[in-house]
TrEMBL record:
Family classification: Belongs to the ABC transporter superfamily.
Taxonomy of the source species: Bacteria, Pseudomonadati, Pseudomonadota, Alphaproteobacteria, Hyphomicrobiales
Keyword annotations from UniProtKB, A to Z: ATP-binding, Nucleotide-binding, Transport
Protein name as catalogued: Multidrug ABC transporter ATP-binding protein
Nucleotide-binding is among the record's keywords: yes
Length: 308
């Protein structure tokens, strides 16, 4: 796939000496959904701010759709839409005027039909003539999304887009994200709701203390670092696990009616299948098999926790 965003050896040290980014390298393909995960203060917002032209890098290079953000600033910025964490809007503007202004700011010709589609998708059409200051927090968040999409960007940054919003908006937003991806828009999101990243993202990046720890395709990451915990309910009591199953590291419950084991890495399914086959061969009957797999949140907590 074509690379639409390339970040090379990116560093940022603030005037107070705080090192926010340390040699970050990242390449993002056109049309993918990329989730950047990290604890508070990890460098996520600084990274987004640099790409979007809001923060000046200390060193390094960022190229957006072939345009260097330091040299070809206007072309690079026209490619990007940003939904920031903060609800920063002109409280006295109407909703429609806010979108018109954002579109004109990037030199785009008026397109009332495009703006109407955005507002309808965000359930804001009936609010188009209301002042932003009169809207609820969730509605203001919708306006920010509309402003970010007004100039038809090819890359959309969503920085904690669902923080503090209602379930309905979260659902509407992710439906819109899927439609945008179908249209070829690249989505880069940060979120504290890691289940959203697990559901939506094609690839995952984990950043901590300014360093990009890993970047990997989501399914491959969960296979490699995840684990499965299996519980097998038996029909008859065992006094001890069979000797030829000792290599499986089985645990037997105190009542002798339940076997359990935990398998890490990519061979979870193969290990479970081999175990069940051996139980059948040994004549050990079981009535239930329950498995619980690691979530992306489990993996994230484990990765970041190792550095603490």
């Amino acid at each position: 796939m074509t690379t639409i965003l390339a970040i090379e050896r990116l560093n940022k040290t603030y005037d107070n000496g705080f090192v926010a980014l340390k040699g970050v390298d990242l390449s993002i393909s056109s049309g993918e959904i990329f989730a950047l995960l990290g604890p508070n203060g990890a460098g996520k917002t600084t990274l987004i701010g640099i790409v979007c032209g809001l923060v000046r890098a200390s060193s390094g290079k960022v190229t957006v759709d072939g345009n260097d953000i330091a040299i070809d600033y206007r072309k690079a910025r026209q490619t990007i839409g940003l939904v920031p964490q903060e609800l920063s809007t002109n409280q006295f503007e109407t909703v429609m005027d806010a979108l018109r202004f954002s579109r004109g700011l990037f030199g785009k010709a008026p397109d009332p039909g495009h703006l109407e589609r955005i507002l309808r998708d965000l359930s804001l059409w009936d609010k188009k003539d209301e002042r932003i200051g009169a809207l609820s927090g969730g509605m203001k968040r919708r306006v920010l999304i509309g402003k970010a999409l007004a100039h038809e960007p090819r890359i959309l940054f969503l920085d904690e887009p669902t923080a503090g919003v209602d379930v309905e908006l979260r659902r509407d937003m992710w439906e819109m994200v899927r439609r945008l991806r179908e249209q070829g828009v690249t989505i880069i999101l940060t979120t504290h709701y890691i289940e959203e990243a697990e559901d939506m993202a094609d690839r995952i990046g984990v950043i901590d203390q300014g360093e990009l720890m890993l970047v990997e395709e989501k399914r491959a990451l969960m296979r490699r670092l995840g684990q499965v915990h299996v519980t097998i309910g038996l029909t008859q009591k065992l006094d001890a696990p069979p000797e030829n199953l000792s290599g499986a590291k089985l645990d037997l419950s105190p009542d002798g009616m339940t076997l359990s084991f935990t398998q890490k890495g990519q061979d979870c399914d193969a290990a479970l299948a081999a175990l069940l086959k051996t139980l059948v061969t040994e004549g050990i009957e079981f009535r239930s098999v329950n498995s619980e797999r690691s979530s992306l949140e489990d993996i994230f907590i484990d990765l970041v926790g190792r550095r603490r």
